[in-house]
């Protein structure tokens, strides 16, 4: 009987995700994951071909809780909003993994199922083939950008405070807008931007 492999793909992904959550994406390396697992770097290559394959495992683990169940029947903007909010919640739990989702989204069953459901809703809404392409990519780009802004440049952070303190005579619009922005919650900012995007997808 062959000996069972000591480190399953799930365990490799968990170790890599632990490294990213602790040290950020720049800290991810085959050596760092091997240390996390308590094995040598060369031993790690017996379980995963290279870093690219390891990244794919991490993306799927980070997004494995993404709910792709079709939302209840109703107006399509509300159904799309429900799906997009789910994606925000899931990727927001591990924001450092976000850049990897762009290059490995086609290898993640969880992302593919979510995208299939979203495209079904957009099809039922009457969007044409090209419109669905643009809508899907625009919504993905919005979520990725919004989550990055929330975690790297939050409205409640020092950057907004610095902009709000700019001389009003030189930056009247920027300073005034920043002052208002400081009171916005992350959810209000996200939902407000999503509403604007969905309004642009509505048919005249």
Attribute tags:
single chain; 204 residues; 11 helices
Please explain how this structure is put together.
With 204 residues, the chain is mainly α. Helix content is 67%, strand content 0%. The chain is flat, with a radius of gyration of 21 Å.
Itemize the secondary structure elements and their pairings:
Layout: H1 9-23, H2 30-37, H3 41-44, H4 51-62, H5 76-92, H6 98-104, H7 109-124, H8 129-152, H9 158-164, H10 172-181, H11 186-201
Helix pairs in contact: 1-2, 1-4, 5-7, 5-8, 7-8, 8-11, 9-10
Element-level helix/strand string: HHHHHHHHHHH
Question: What fraction of the residues are assigned to beta strands by DSSP?
Answer: under 5%
Helix proportion of residues, in percent? 55-70%
Low-confidence stretches: none
| Count of helical stretches | 11
Class by alpha and beta content = mainly alpha
Distance between the first and last residues' Cα: 66 Å
Shape estimate? flat
Mean pLDDT: 92
The number of strands is 0
Which radius of gyration do the C-alpha atoms yield?
Answer: 21 Å
Tell me about the biggest sheet? none
Compact overview of the structure:
With 204 residues, the protein is mainly α. 67% of the residues lie in helices and 0% in strands. The model has no long low-confidence stretch (mean pLDDT 92).
